Structure formats: structure tokens, C-alpha cells
Amino acid sequence: MINIVLFGKPGAGKGTQAEFLKGKYNLTHISTGDVFRYHLKNNTELGKLARIFMDAGDLVPDELTIKMLQDEVERHTDTKGFLFDGFPRTIAQAQALDVFLATKSWEVTATIALEANDEVLIQRLLERGKTSGRIDDQDEEKIRNRYVEYNEKTAPLIEYYSKQNKFYPVNGIGSIAEITERLSTVIDKL
């Protein structure tokens, strides 16, 4: 079983790359954003709570995120592995993921980070916001707030996974094919 955390700031291309990687490596893709959007669209109790935070451009609290993720993993226990996209976002979430995976005798195999300049990513998100309908991608101030949240809460995961020799940075600028090739080079060596 291979379990990969695809890591990077909003707009880094995690979702785009996950589409290619899940097929190539036969992994179950779990996008926290997609899971949130499902709950929001279907107006579930978890979705109602998540909406309050997302509309403000804030990260959804750990306990909500973890509950949604565990439910999603439980639906795919026969998989060859998971590609976690947008999770974990905090040390507490990483620790909760480790504990949860251990109950299945699994672990995070690698964390691969798509790295890119903030200004490039902001422009990507603003462009995506024109067609996605996502409120959090249409307001530059909210995007910048998401980056502040990322730097405060998510960036510490670099050290967390580096200490476990599970952190692999990858240049996230270039064509989709170039970035996919860089990611594949890392995964093929795991």
C-alpha cells in the first residue's frame, strides 16, 4: 500500500496532478476540497459547519476535516493506496492521520510538495475563480488570507515529514506534463 500526501499552497496544482497520478498508480484520490464541496452541496451537518469557515477564507477546523476524511477512507478500504490532496493541513491533522492509518496497519509513504511563487498561485486562483464558481477563489484578499493560514498552520508540516524522511519538494511551475513527470520521478523511487 502506498499513501501519498500531495502538499502545496492553494492553486499549486494538487487537484490537476492528482487526476494524472491516481490513474497512473491506481490510487484512490481523496481531495479534502471535493469532500468539503460534497458536504456543502448536500447541505450535510458537517457541510453547514464547514461553510462558515470556508466562506471567510479560513481553514476548516481539524475535528471536522478529520471526521470527513475518515468517513471517505472507510468507503475505500480495498484500495492499493491513497492520494491525499489538501490533507493534512496541520500538525494535529498529520498526527491524527498517522494514528488513523496505523489502526489499519498503514502509514504515509511520502509527502510530495508542489512548490510555486505566491503571486503566480494567486493569479492561477483568480483565473480558476472565473469559471469554478468558488467564492474563495474570486477575492484576492481571501486568497491572501488562505496563504497566511497556510504559512502559520500548514508550512510546519514540512519539518514534521522531513524528520521522518518522507518530504519531497517538487517544482510546481511549468507545463502540466512537466510537473507530472517530476512527481512520477519521485513516486517511482519510493
TrEMBL record:
<feature type="binding site">
    <location>
        <begin position="11"/>
        <end position="16"/>
    </location>
    <ligand>
        <name>ATP</name>
    </ligand>
</feature>
<comment type="pathway">
    <text>Purine metabolism; AMP biosynthesis via salvage pathway; AMP from ADP: step 1/1.</text>
</comment>
<feature type="region of interest" description="NMP">
    <location>
        <begin position="31"/>
        <end position="60"/>
    </location>
</feature>
<keyword id="KW-0547">Nucleotide-binding</keyword>
<keyword id="KW-0067">ATP-binding</keyword>
<feature type="binding site">
    <location>
        <position position="174"/>
    </location>
    <ligand>
        <name>ATP</name>
    </ligand>
</feature>
<dbReference type="GO" id="GO:0005524">
    <property type="term" value="F:ATP binding"/>
</dbReference>
<dbReference type="GO" id="GO:0044209">
    <property type="term" value="P:AMP salvage"/>
</dbReference>
<dbReference type="GO" id="GO:0005737">
    <property type="term" value="C:cytoplasm"/>
</dbReference>
<keyword id="KW-0808">Transferase</keyword>
<feature type="binding site">
    <location>
        <position position="146"/>
    </location>
    <ligand>
        <name>AMP</name>
    </ligand>
</feature>
<feature type="binding site">
    <location>
        <position position="32"/>
    </location>
    <ligand>
        <name>AMP</name>
    </ligand>
</feature>
<keyword id="KW-0418">Kinase</keyword>
<keyword id="KW-0963">Cytoplasm</keyword>
<feature type="binding site">
    <location>
        <position position="134"/>
    </location>
    <ligand>
        <name>AMP</name>
    </ligand>
</feature>
<comment type="function">
    <text>Catalyzes the reversible transfer of the terminal phosphate group between ATP and AMP. Plays an important role in cellular energy homeostasis and in adenine nucleotide metabolism.</text>
</comment>
<dbReference type="GO" id="GO:0004017">
    <property type="term" value="F:AMP kinase activity"/>
</dbReference>
<dbReference type="InterPro" id="IPR027417">
    <property type="entry name" value="P-loop_NTPase"/>
</dbReference>
<protein>
    <recommendedName>
        <fullName>Adenylate kinase</fullName>
        <ecNumber>2.7.4.3</ecNumber>
    </recommendedName>
</protein>
<dbReference type="Pfam" id="PF00406">
    <property type="entry name" value="ADK"/>
</dbReference>
<comment type="similarity">
    <text>Belongs to the adenylate kinase family.</text>
</comment>
<dbReference type="InterPro" id="IPR033690">
    <property type="entry name" value="Adenylat_kinase_CS"/>
</dbReference>
<feature type="binding site">
    <location>
        <position position="37"/>
    </location>
    <ligand>
        <name>AMP</name>
    </ligand>
</feature>
<dbReference type="InterPro" id="IPR000850">
    <property type="entry name" value="Adenylat/UMP-CMP_kin"/>
</dbReference>
<feature type="binding site">
    <location>
        <position position="93"/>
    </location>
    <ligand>
        <name>AMP</name>
    </ligand>
</feature>
<keyword id="KW-0545">Nucleotide biosynthesis</keyword>
<feature type="binding site">
    <location>
        <begin position="58"/>
        <end position="60"/>
    </location>
    <ligand>
        <name>AMP</name>
    </ligand>
</feature>
<feature type="binding site">
    <location>
        <position position="128"/>
    </location>
    <ligand>
        <name>ATP</name>
    </ligand>
</feature>
<feature type="binding site">
    <location>
        <begin position="86"/>
        <end position="89"/>
    </location>
    <ligand>
        <name>AMP</name>
    </ligand>
</feature>
<comment type="subunit">
    <text>Monomer.</text>
</comment>
